[in-house]
Structure formats: structure tokens, C-alpha cells
């Protein structure tokens, strides 16, 4: 599916569309997670393919340049040969052959500057293409290194996210805080209950109860003492 989109829309537009799809599915590249790494890998693959195509184009350019250069050099040799043929024919007294050879030499000479200019343009274009190819290759190697660093960073981020998740799930500090709050609430309620109990108690009744308790204690002590005094003392044998 991805290759079909790239083929129809082009690589740049295709990557944008695929990235949009990822966002619509709740996986935006901006999240910096695994989706971002996957998009980066797709982009890196596209760059590798583009550099490979550029290398093939440069090779074709260089082949065409060599062909043009060889043609130019062949024409130079042809010109020199025609001039030599005209000179030989003239020395041999063959005026017609000399004129014919010289006419061809002149025609060839007329095209040489144009061929030379075209060869120079081809050489300049090939040199520029080679320079660009070298720059793109250097960039590609840089992106490859960045890709590996990105993968490593993504793995570290995943590990940190897992650590944070564990810390959040087992947040004992939060439980301690809740416990202390509950403990404080219970203690405050206990104090309030005691205060209400003290306020609701009748002081007169409390004093009367204390007096009765004291009287009862005295009566209990008196009777115990009487029992002790009424017991007959045993004489020693």
C-alpha cells in the first residue's frame, strides 16, 4: 500500500500522506515514539533509493560524456587526416582529390568548436553531478548515524516511560499521605466526641456519684474489718 501511494503521489507527498494516516490512527509522528522511528526509517529508505538513482544517473551522464569526448577526439583526428590527404593529393598533382579532401577538412573544422563547447558543458555537468552525489552520500551516512542514535534514544525513552509507569502504579507516598489524612480525621473526631461527652455530662450527678462511691468504699472497708475482728484468735500449741 505504501509503495503504491509513493508511486502515485511521489515520495515526498507519499510520506506526508502516510504520516497523516498515522496521525488519524492516533499515532502522530510528533509523539516521538515508535511511529516516529518508523517514519524516519521510511524516509531514510527513500533517501537511499534516491541516492542510488542519482548514482545511476551520474553513471549514465559520465557514459554520455565519454561518448561525446571520444566523438570530438575522433573528429579532430578526422580533420588532421583530411588535411594530410589534401596535402598528399596536391603533391601528387591530383588537384581534384586535394580540393575534395580540403573541403571535407574545412567542414569538419567548422563543427569542431561546437563539439568542443558541448564536450566542455558535458564535463561541467558531470563534475557537478558527481559533487552532488558525493554530498548526498555524505548526508546519507550522517542520516544513517542519526537513525541509529534515534533508535537508541527511542529505546531509552521507552525504558524511562516504563520506569515512570511503575513508579506511578506503586506510589507509596500517595498512600502514606492518604493514611495520615485518615488518621488525623479519626483523631479529630475522637477529640470532638470526648468534648461532646464531657459537655453532655451533668456535674451534679457526677459529684453525687463520686460521693456514693466513696461512701460505698468506706462501708465495704468497715464491714471487712468487723469480720476480721469477729474471727476467734487461735492460741499457739
Automatic annotation (TrEMBL):
<keyword id="KW-0175">Coiled coil</keyword>
<dbReference type="Pfam" id="PF04012">
    <property type="entry name" value="PspA_IM30"/>
</dbReference>
<protein>
    <submittedName>
        <fullName>PspA/IM30 family protein</fullName>
    </submittedName>
</protein>
<feature type="coiled-coil region">
    <location>
        <begin position="37"/>
        <end position="85"/>
    </location>
</feature>
<feature type="coiled-coil region">
    <location>
        <begin position="112"/>
        <end position="153"/>
    </location>
</feature>
<comment type="similarity">
    <text>Belongs to the PspA/Vipp/IM30 family.</text>
</comment>
<dbReference type="InterPro" id="IPR007157">
    <property type="entry name" value="PspA_VIPP1"/>
</dbReference>
Amino acid at each position: 500500500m505504501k509503495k503504491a501511494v509513493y508511486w502515485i503521489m511521489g515520495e515526498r507527498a507519499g510520506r506526508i500522506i502516510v504520516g497523516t494516516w498515522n496521525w488519524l490512527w492516533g499515532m502522530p509522528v510528533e509523539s516521538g515514539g515508535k511511529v516516529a522511528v518508523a517514519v524516519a526509517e521510511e524516509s531514510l529508505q527513500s533517501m537511499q533509493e534516491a541516492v542510488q538513482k542519482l548514482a545511476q544517473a551520474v553513471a549514465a551522464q559520465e557514459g554520455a560524456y565519454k561518448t561525446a569526448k571520444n566523438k570530438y577526439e575522433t573528429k579532430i583526428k578526422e580533420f588532421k587526416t583530411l588535411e594530410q590527404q589534401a596535402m598528399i593529393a596536391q603533391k601528387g598533382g591530383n588537384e581534384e582529390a586535394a580540393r575534395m579532401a580540403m573541403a571535407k577538412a574545412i567542414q569538419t573544422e567548422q563543427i569542431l568548436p561546437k563539439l568542443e563547447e558541448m564536450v566542455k558543458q558535458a564535463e561541467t555537468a558531470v563534475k557537478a553531478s558527481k559533487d552532488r552525489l558525493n554530498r548526498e552520500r555524505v548526508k546519507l551516512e550522517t542520516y544513517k548515524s542519526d537513525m541509529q542514535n534515534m533508535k537508541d534514544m527511542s529505546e531509552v525513552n521507552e525504558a524511562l516511560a516504563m520506569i515512570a509507569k511503575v513508579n506511578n502504579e506503586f506510589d507509596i507516598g500517595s498512600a502514606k499521605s492518604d493514611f495520615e489524612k485518615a488518621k488525623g480525621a479519626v483523631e479529630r473526631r475522637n477529640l470532638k466526641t470526648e468534648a461532646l461527652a464531657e459537655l453532655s455530662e451533668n456535674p451534679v450527678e457526677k459529684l453525687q456519684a463520686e460521693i456514693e462511691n466513696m461512701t460505698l468504699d468506706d462501708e465495704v472497708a468497715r464491714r471487712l474489718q468487723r469480720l476480721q475482728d469477729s474471727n476467734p484468735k487461735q492460741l499457739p500449741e
